[in-house]
Amino acid sequence: MLETPSYRSGFAGLIGRPNAGKSTLLNTLVGRKVAIISDKPQTTRNKILGVYTDEQAQIIFLDTPGIHKPRHRLGEYMVQVAQQTLKEVDVVVYVVDAAVEPGAGEEYILNSLKGISTPVILVLNKIDLISEEQLLRVQQFFQSRFEPAGMVALSALQGTNVEQLPPLIIQHLPPGPQYYPPEQITDQPARLIIAELIREKILLLTEEEVPHAVAVVVEDMLERPGGILYVPATIYVERDSQKGILIGKGGRMLKEIGILARQEIEALLGNKIYLDLRVRVKKDWRRQEGALRQLGYEVGRRRPV
Ligand SMILES: Nc1nc2c(ncn2[C@@H]2O[C@H](COP(=O)(O)OP(=O)(O)OP(=O)(O)O)[C@@H](O)[C@H]2O)c(=O)[nH]1
């Protein structure tokens, strides 16, 4: 993990109408894996779309559900989630299709931005399709509605000016560590899958009351020298007796769970891993809202650390 005093890292909320070119932009910025990642169903509120890393900073792009599809009937919840996300991120990246005249969809988004003090970077996309006059017109339209903290006209598809975007975002990020190894585009789906695999092994090896009382949280995925991925994971149970069963005599049960899970995870990731399993008791976690939230069973912002 790179951690220098001048390094910056933080969250960018990606917004824009459907078809504005958000995925294309992320693909150009971050790499081809992003599209695959965004296909995976995820339950987290703030889905990580991709992670951009360079020498100066790391930008974690978050999805903003509820803002992308203004035509859909939105529950109050979705609107709240969207607003909340916009407030919580360090910077908002608003992607616009400059090849279409701004209409009701953009007005909806502009409205959502009202009353939010987060800096907004305006991306006028698809400049390969339009004349300079049209670009100027679109630019004026947006500038008459709000004050962007930065603006760039680019073509996500052709890559024109795309390199100008990260510096605009980075200047709004706080100092912080590199949360993810540079080659890792996102680890959310991987973490969830690994947690499920561990849980599956527990179900296989234990019986009765234990399986239902178990929650598994993969705390991190860190690259260690030699290409080994260090994966600390916590198994939560409700009672001391369950903890005893899971650990087993002389730690045998936990070891067995670890071996079985590790084999499958290595096959899945194609990487050597060091699985560091711990068992913790969280009394009656299933009944406690706070505990549930902590375990990721409810909406709530979780920094990826
Ligand atoms: N000509 C041109 N086409 C682009 C550009 N960027 C994106 N597109 C095209 O616009 C369409 C929509 O792009 P996406 O990246 O899927 O848009 P999106 O905002 O992610 O759309 P949703 O997933 O519906 O929210 C695709 O056909 C892209 O190829 C660009 O810079 N120039």
Automatic annotation (TrEMBL):
Binding-site list for GTP: 16-23, 63-67, 125-128
Residue ranges occupied by any KH type-2 domain in the UniProt entry: 206-283
Gene Ontology molecular-function annotations: GTP binding; GTPase activity; ribosomal small subunit binding; small ribosomal subunit rRNA binding
CDD domains referenced in this protein's UniProt entry, alphabetically: Era, KH-II_Era
Location of the region described as G1 in the Swiss-Prot/TrEMBL record: 16-23
Signal peptide location: none
Positions of the UniProt region annotated as G4: 125-128
Stretch list, region G5: 154-156
Gene Ontology terms describing biological process: ribosomal small subunit assembly
GO CC aspect terms: cytosol; plasma membrane
Predominant place of localization: cytoplasm
Region of interest (G2), residue spans: 42-46
Keywords linked to the UniProt accession: Cell membrane, Cytoplasm, GTP-binding, Membrane, Nucleotide-binding, Ribosome biogenesis, RNA-binding, rRNA-binding
Pfam family name, one: MMR_HSR1
Membrane topology of this protein: Peripheral membrane protein
Stretches for region G3: 63-66
Subcellular location field: Cytoplasm; Cell membrane
Domain spans labelled Era-type G: 8-175
Family: Belongs to the TRAFAC class TrmE-Era-EngA-EngB-Septin-like GTPase superfamily. Era GTPase family.
Subunit structure: Monomer.
HAMAP family per record: GTPase_Era
Protein's job: An essential GTPase that binds both GDP and GTP, with rapid nucleotide exchange. Plays a role in 16S rRNA processing and 30S ribosomal subunit biogenesis and possibly also in cell cycle regulation and energy metabolism.
Classification via PANTHER family: GTPASE ERA (PTHR42698), GTPASE ERA, MITOCHONDRIAL (PTHR42698:SF1)
Protein name: GTPase Era
Organism whose genome encodes this protein: Thermanaeromonas toyohensis ToBE
Gene giving rise to this polypeptide: era
